[in-house]
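Bench log, entry 3. Co-assembly request; chain sequences pasted below exactly as received.
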Amino acid sequence: MTTAGWLIMFLSVGSVTLLFAWCLFQIIFGSRDRRLHGIDDIDTHGD
Amino acid sequence: MVTKAKTERWSSRIGMILAVAGSAVGLGNFLRFPGLAAQYGSGAFMVAYFISLLVLGIPICWAEWTLGRFAGQSGLHSTPGILYTLVRHPVGKYLGVLGILIPLVIYMYYVYIEAWCMGYAFFFLTGKLNLGGDVAAYGDFWANFVGANENGLTFSAGYNQVVIFLLLAFALNFFLIYRGLAKGIEMFCKYAMPALILLAVVILARVLTLGTPDPLKPDRNVINGLGYMWNPGDVLAQLSNPQLWLAASGQIFFSLSVGFGIIITYASYLTRKDDIVLSGLTASAANEFCEVALGGLITVPAAFMFLGAAGIVGQGTFGLGFKVLPLVFSEMPMPQLFGGAFFLLLFLAAVTSSLSMLQPCIAFMEEGLGLNRKQSVTLLGLLTAIGSAFVVFFSKDLKALDTMDFWVGTVCIFIMATIIIIIFGWVLGLERSWREAHRGAEMRIPVFFKPIIKFVSPLYLITVFALFILFNVFGWNPSTGRFEPSSYVSDVVGPEPSTVARLSLALIAIIIVFFLILIGTAGKRWRQTEGETDPGR
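Structure output for the full assembly:
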């Protein structure tokens, strides 16, 4: 396996694993306070 | 509000995310992606793949989540109902026929492949799939099992095992769909998705610790297997190949299940303030993890270690999955355990996907025709049984399956996704869609996605679709500049047409007309309910 092969494998596998882990962390431990309440009041039905 | 009837809801956020991820994670993650990446030279392929994920996959996912949740507040959950709400024009609801046709027709043949996975898991676990070291023996076994040599073979005595597995798969799907969204789909995905990932991690650990399986062939080792999968070729030269971009964007597109009418239906069961930005990204990330990190490290490296490069080239998805890999697992230590685990993994991935294909039709029958759950499940069971029987009977060279997969499972999906992204960015309007997406959001979509969603995604999608039609329908050869219509066209209008291909297209046309008539009826019902609810409209 070439150095470029290792690099591509680690970048590809690492990036999707990190993204998935980050998302799971946010879902499980993320605070509900970070909800963007400021835009909750916009009524789009009236447009 | 179209209806005030009590609507179904997801019971938990994680269950809903797992259901969407389960819909996306399928056979393509473990069989199609690794084959394409190795075929096109992983470096260039992954560049095109990640660009497609950013400009096509994730934006369209967010669009589907947003439109589904938005329209779902009116009480409608099927694509015709959702487009009836979003497109204030009588034609709107009829565009939604694609959101019924696509999952319904794909289910008709996908459940057949699901039955193969169940059968192979059973054969491995019971020790009946150890046919020695000749890949041809596995090819013959597969051809006889699925009836690829002769039409109607699987209905004759001695060859009908697959029909039993098909009936079992059908029963499982319809039992879960009858239980409903939360008690059926969500409950199953809550267990099946973690089990699927766990099985994949165990198999991955096994593959990565195989070392050099045959000491007489020292070059067939785990490092070279990974190298075959991930070593790049001439990246710049490969990136100039339009077929590579077509393959990469197609893979992203089909892998994430965008344009199927499924995500839009699932999202419509959310409440108005449920987060969709983070949830949508998580479901997409789960799919990418299964595809790149698990599928990318298991299938091709394992096949290389036992068969070398020559055993993998040109096998295609079914060849890799049902001829090469059974041999690979048979040659491994503890073949029953690992072979059984792998096909059980594929079976779970297939069930979580096929379940999601039934829900849009169930939703339409309930809200559009006023059927109750038992009636809608019965009608849908009848329709899908007829379609699947057609696919199973016309099994020679898998012609019916292949024809339906091309015209509905590929062409129609492009059209549906284009409709969705245009409604999001242009019909509903980007600013309004953007605000709607962020209602209750737990993270913000980076602002650079605005021009991507408005301009880049539709243009990219239309370009890819045009290239797809050019290469795969008209058969354009860029090196000679000549057009040679593909087999999908010549099978229908060529000098030697295929009766099965023509019958398959006729079946698709009948389904379209049937549902267009039902959508017309449903439209009257929705207008009537709307008038009763809001007489001033």
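The longest strand of chain B covers residues 476-477. Chain B is about 75% helix and 0% strand.
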